[in-house]
Amino acid sequence: MRFDILTIFPEVFKNYFDTSIIKRAQSKKIIEIYIHNLRDWTTDSHQSVDDAPYGGGKGMIFKVEPIFKAVKDLKKGQSKQGAKYRIILFSPKGKKLNQSRVKKLTRYKRLILICPRYEGVDERVAKYIADEEISIGDYILTGGELPAMVLVDSITRLLPGVINKESLLEESFNIKNLGEYPQYTRPAIFYPNKKNKKIAWRVPKTLLSGNHKKIQQWQQKHMASN
Description:
Number of strands: 9
CATH topology of the largest domain: Alpha/beta knot
Strand content: 15-25%
C-alpha cells in the first residue's frame, strides 16, 4: 500500500515513520510512504500556499490551486479505478476515524493525504478534490500532520504481514466489547519502597496460575468499559 502525504512541514514525519512497526513494514515492502512538500506546487517567489479568506475572518487558509496541482501530478498515469486510490482531507468537520473506517481504507492500494494548516483550506478542496474528510476527534489541532500519522499507523498494523494475526484478533475482540482487561508483566511482586516490604504491588494470583480457562474468565470479568 502506498501513502502520499501533502504537507508544508515534511520534516515532522521522519522520526515516527523511521521507527518500530512502520519502519519494518516499509523494509518488508508492505507499505510505501512518500512525503511531498506542498510548496513545490506554488508559482510565486515566496512559495505561498495560503491567503486571507473572502468575506473576512481571522487567520489564513490554504489555497485550492497548489493542492489541485499536487494531486493532479500524483494521479498522473493512473486511472482512479485501476489505481484504487482515495484522497483524504483532514478536517475537524470530517467523519470520525474509528476502527471500522480504518478497515475500509485498507482496501485501497493508495491513499493521498492532505494535511491542512492555519485556519483550514478553501472549501473547493473538500468539494471537488477530496473523496472524504476525516477527523480524529472533537478537538482542534494545529495541522493535519498528526492525523496523517495516526491514519498511516492504524492502517499499516492491519495489513497482512505487519502484526501477528492472533494479536489482531484479540484487539478486535476488545474493540467490539469497548474495553480491555488489565495486563501485567514481570515482576510478579513489585516493592515501590524497598525498605518497607509490607507495601507490595502484586499481580493477581489467577494470572500466575497457568489455568487458561480461569485466566480467560478473569479477563472477561475485568474487561473495562470506555
